[in-house]
Prior knowledge:
Radius of gyration of chain B: 13 Å
Strand content of chain A: 15-25%
Shape of chain A: elongated
Strand order of the largest sheet of chain B: 1-5-4-3-2
Shape of chain B: globular
Structural class of chain B: alpha/beta
Oligomer: heterodimer
Low-confidence stretches of chain B: none
Structural class of chain A: alpha+beta
CATH superfamily of chain B: HprK N-terminal domain-like
Amino acid sequence: MSPTSPLTRTPTAQETRGRRDRSITDKDANAINRVEELSYDLKIHEVMTRQMKIASPEMPLANVLEILRINHISGVPVVKDSELIGILSLEDIVRAMQKNELSAPVSQYMTRKIITVASYDSIVSAIQKFSDSRLGRLPVLDENNKLVGMITKGDITRGILVALQKDYKEEEVRRYRASHLFEDIVSDRTTLVLRYNIKAHDFTHGGNASSHIKRALLRLGADPQTARRCGIAVYEAEINLIIHSTNGGILKLEVESHRITMSTTDDGPGIENIEQVLQPGYSTATEQVREMGFGAGMGLVNIKRCVDKMDIESTVGKGTKLTMRIYVPTENLNGRKDD
Amino acid sequence: MNLKKIIELANGHLLTPQTNINIEINGGYGADLMSDVLAFSQPNSVLLTGLTNPQVVRTAQMAEFHAIIFVRGKQPQAETLLIAAQENIPLISSPFGMFELSGRLHQAGLPSFESNESN
């Protein structure tokens, strides 16, 4: 037996400090969050071991030692008349060996003070009991306090890994399907076009289209930075349509393997002086719009910062077309360069 | 800093009980101007704001905020709560004003996630 398992010993002060000093990256944070979520979602009965070895109180310790050795386990629950009355661990047997009493009955050396967990509880309650008690295995009782299984830290790790793998596979399948669009469908030039109708002055639904676009880009395999830039640009453009257009307009996303083009088109009122609307701080927005946190004259400035190319065409009385373009590094969107 | 701890420091009240508050928040950002939020914030932080309309949640989502705190005890519109629940973004109401709350969180070790350079 190893003297102290890394799972049960208390970390040294230096280790604790080291961990705090390490800054957590986005990626770490996501992984931790999902594992933490799972520790609440997964129930003990989903991960516990049901087929367990048990000992009776009359059994000689030597027999139990044999059970532990053959099954590679370090402890067994002791059951009398189908009721849990104790736990016998290797440590208890070692105590007996020191006194050369391996022929003594289990009841003489077993631990009677038992810490148990409920099968219907989340695994987080088992994790807490493991860390409080430093025990390696805990008996699991059902709602009628009957012994139904054992849980170890290994069971928890395995349960979480299986659940994570399932999550990962589901998202992978979705991503795979979407991101291979550009490889699986052969053409000289493949373009995926998404169109959204935006209503004028509909602030309540403002941003819904942008939210869908961002999600679509991530599914298509865009890197998070590109998706964020597109999301912010298209959101500002969507809000502009809502604030300024007479009859609403169309928001369009065109995805190609090497570039993403977003555009908004409306049929009025049109912009009189394009130079002027590009000035930071210039705004024609109403007080109502400003109260909502928009209309500070920063929308187009923001868009310009986010995209590689921005273009406005406008005729007063006819309408405005805003085009925004982001070039994608070749390895993203799984595309081959086609020009 | 854990969002739970931030809620504690803010004397906050979680308005979206179904969202997970056991998440790590890397920094803070405060503004009432949504274009500023979009332009100068960094992802994975908490947004402190006095605005309560649904656009705040959409803005937070686009700029990748992990939580929103409404300052001065403001209560969001029903639509705002709905979108936040859909998008799984925790909403919190704090009795403190923007300056007071920023100070408290910053002093407790939450870094400012306001960036001045353009990306």
